[in-house]
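Lecture notes, part 5. Sequence design as translation. It can be helpful to think of inverse folding as translation between two languages: the language of shapes and the language of residues. The source text, in structure tokens, appears below.
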């Protein structure tokens, strides 16, 4: 017990250094684009809710017209309707920070990241003060566009001007994760813990997402173990990120992740099945037909193929919908005697 308490109090970065576990492995391939769309439909996005509702950002002195515009922009953003959000935004006076914030958040929700960056630049040029919501929205927009210089500038400005709260620290972790900056994500987790802001599964999952983007399976496993010892229950999203970070890793390590998830009572989803199959195969299966995919799979170790077949069979039994890629691999496995 004393050892565990010392572990929970110790800075993550120091433990990581002591464990000498900053090795990376190259990523083999990613299947995230369609799966990200799947998660958005199901409400299982991998990223932290980085920004608060801009409608709650000190609106008491705003004219009624501007409040209504903010409400309209926010609703349009939730509906993923950028033309409607933009039309409401351009009707504003251009003097209310909250309108800019709402428009930036809506741009992120609608994946109109360049438009959101343009709105942020107009806010800056107008000389309006920035809030925690402003910074959080800006970080998301710039990181999605992989504009790391601007991300670094915003983070520097945050530390110089405000005390980040939990959502903003989450946005900072998420920005680090987008570019695979594992050490920065861990330092931000440490910052939260030092301020007695207990990181949630979403914060830990975002840090593990950094490992995924860096291809660092060792640190991903370390963070997963640490969050569990810290009393935070992982989610299927956390395991999705951990599996992606282990793409091409030793089969026993991938099987351990799946076993841990099952023992914790966490149900696999469509994303996990595809991510796990991809990670175990450790290579890009680009063929669109089962016959052609069979040629690619023939290059993979038979023990891995058996494990892939088992996972697909379990997904079928659990009535988990399979993606097109998994169905193609299933057909290929059947053709070469593994299903």
């Amino acid at each position: 017990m004393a050892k565990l308490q010392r572990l929970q109090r110790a800075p993550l970065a120091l433990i990581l250094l002591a464990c000498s576990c900053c090795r990376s492995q190259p990523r083999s391939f990613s299947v995230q684009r369609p799966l990200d769309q799947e998660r958005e439909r199901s409400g299982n996005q991998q990223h932290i809710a980085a920004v608060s509702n801009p409608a709650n950002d000190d609106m008491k002195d705003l004219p009624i017209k501007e409040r209504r515009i903010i409400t309209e922009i926010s609703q349009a953003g939730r509906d993923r309707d950028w033309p409607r959000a933009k039309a409401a935004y351009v009707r504003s006076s251009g003097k209310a920070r909250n309108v800019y914030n709402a428009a930036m958040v809506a741009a992120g929700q609608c994946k109109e990241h360049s438009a959101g960056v343009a709105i942020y630049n107009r806010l800056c040029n107008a000389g309006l003060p920035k809030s925690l919501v402003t910074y959080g929205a800006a970080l998301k927009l710039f990181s999605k566009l992989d504009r790391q210089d601007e991300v670094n500038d915003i983070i520097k400005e945050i530390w110089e001007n405000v005390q980040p709260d939990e959502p903003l620290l989450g946005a900072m972790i998420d920005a680090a994760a987008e570019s695979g900056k594992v050490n920065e994500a861990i330092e931000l987790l440490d910052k939260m813990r030092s301020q007695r802001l207990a990181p949630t599964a979403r914060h830990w999952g975002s840090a593990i997402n950094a490992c995924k983007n860096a291809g660092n399976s060792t640190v991903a496993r370390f963070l997963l173990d640490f969050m569990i010892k810290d009393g935070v229950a992982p989610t299927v999203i956390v395991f999705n990120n951990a599996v992606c970070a282990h793409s091409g890793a030793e089969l026993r390590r991938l099987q351990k992740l799946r076993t841990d998830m099952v023992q914790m009572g966490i149900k696999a989803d469509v994303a996990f099945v595809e991510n796990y199959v991809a990670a175990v195969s450790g290579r890009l299966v680009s063929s669109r037909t089962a016959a052609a995919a069979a040629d690619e799979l023939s290059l993979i170790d038979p023990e891995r193929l058996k494990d892939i077949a088992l996972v697909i069979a379990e997904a079928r039994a659990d009535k988990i919908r399979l993606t097109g890629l998994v169905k193609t691999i299933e057909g290929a496995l059947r053709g070469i005697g593994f299903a």
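The translated text above is only one of many valid answers, since several sequences can fold into similar shapes. DSSP finds 19 helices and no strands in the chain.
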